[in-house]
Amino acid sequence: MAVSDASPPPAGRPAQRIDVLPRRSAAASSRSALAGLIRRDLTVLKKSFGEFVGRTVMQPFLLVFVFLYVFPLIGQGIGSGGGTAGESAFATVLVPGVVSIAIMFQGIQSVAIQMSQEFGFTREIEDRVQAPCPIWMIAVARVLSGAAQGLISAVIVLPIAAVVHAPGVHPHLVIHWWIVVTLIPLSCVTMTSLGLFLGTTFEPRNIGVMFGFVVLPLVFLGGTYYQWTKLSLVQVGGFHWLQVLVLVNPLIYMSEGMRAGFTDVSHMHLYIVYPVLVGFLVLFLGLGLRNFRHRVLS
Questions:
Q1: Is the pLDDT confidence value at 2 over 50?
Q2: Which of 21, 25, 44, 235 measures 20 to 30 Å from 264, CA to CA?
Q3: How far apart are CA 199 and CA 41, in angstroms?
Q4: How many CB atoms are closer than 10 A to CB 259?
């Protein structure tokens, strides 16, 4: 800090100006605050990691346990008309879908639910906005920390989804690393941006409405249990209406991208998957930041 001589001037002489230079720029202060907010969220995650793993694993485990273990054993396996080969084909389709919904649910839970609580009864958002950084950066910090949790959930869920199955049922997984290491982070940030948008749109009392009218349709129409390419068989008058309808769902692009990354089955072209996911990211993040600023200042 540089400070000029601050002694009182003699009578009749003008006061000297005191120049105070900041130790660091506003951008550096904002970056430091952003890193601090992310570290705070990850520290909280570390302290409650067991709870995090439990909520991350429960739904994907039950999905693969029921569809890939119980159903084949009792003779009701999906694709069982083709024997174990048909059941294995379904398992190959399901595993990438399970990873996708794990990332989606983690994005909603870590951002939307937390954001709703902070704007609701906890009022924790009032403490966060006192950080020495722009308001939008506080929301970005939550998105990035949630994306890190989504990445961890994908790492946890994939081995479980790949090994839990009945005897004779084998998902045929072939990992294409360049797709995996690019698509999963993009998917995590997209879903946490969706979580930011939902968390700043729905009031705490309407969280049930959000799950019933937004989250569930996303899951069942998001290609978790089927390939988008197979939806061409659902048509009316030659129009593939369902295949077109689900294109408004960001989860369909995630699921298809995961199939491209983890299997060799047919999937949507990657030159469509990547740009559309980036587009959804920009849309959700932009709307979420706008809503966040409005909620904070209102």
A1: no
A2: 235
A3: 17
A4: 27
Separation of alpha carbons 245 and 8, rounded Å: 76
Yes or no: say if 172 and 263 are a contact pair by the CB < 8 Å rule: yes
* Cβ 232 vs Cβ 245: under 8 Å: no
Sign of the C-alpha dihedral computed for residues 263, 233, 80 and 250 taken in this order:
positive
Q: How far is CA 171 from CA 127, 164, 176, in A?
A: 47, 10, 15
Q: How many helical (H) and strand (E) elements, i.e. helices and strands, does the chain have?
A: 13, 0
150-168 as b/e: b if 16+ CB within 10 A: bbbbbebbbebbbebbbee
Neighbours of 298 (CB within 10 A): 5
Of how many residues is the chain composed?
298
Q: Look at phi and psi of residue 122 and say left if phi exceeds 0, alpha if psi is from -120 to 50, else beta.
A: alpha
Task: Determine the residue type at 201.
Answer: T
pLDDT tens profile 176-228: 999 999 999 999 999 999 999 998 888 878 888 888 889 999 999 999 999 99
- What is the Rg, in whole angstroms, of the alpha carbon atoms belonging to the chain? 25
Burial of 136 (0-12, 13-18, 19+ CB in 10 A): middle
Q: What is the end-to-end Cα distance of the chain in Å, rounded?
A: 37
Per DSSP, the three-state class of 239 is strand
Alpha-carbon gap, residue 233 to 245, rounded angstroms: 14
Distances (CA, A) of 215 to 66, 91, 234, 243, 269: 21, 23, 23, 19, 25
CB 188 within 8 A of CB 150: yes
CA 31 remoteness from chain centre = 22
pLDDT digits (tens, 9 = 90+) for 75-89: 877 765 667 788 888
Query: Could you report the per-residue pLDDT of 210-222, keeping only the tens digit for each?
Result: 888 899 999 999 9
Q: Which residue has the tokens 């949507």?
A: 268
Residue 19 has what DSSP assignment? P
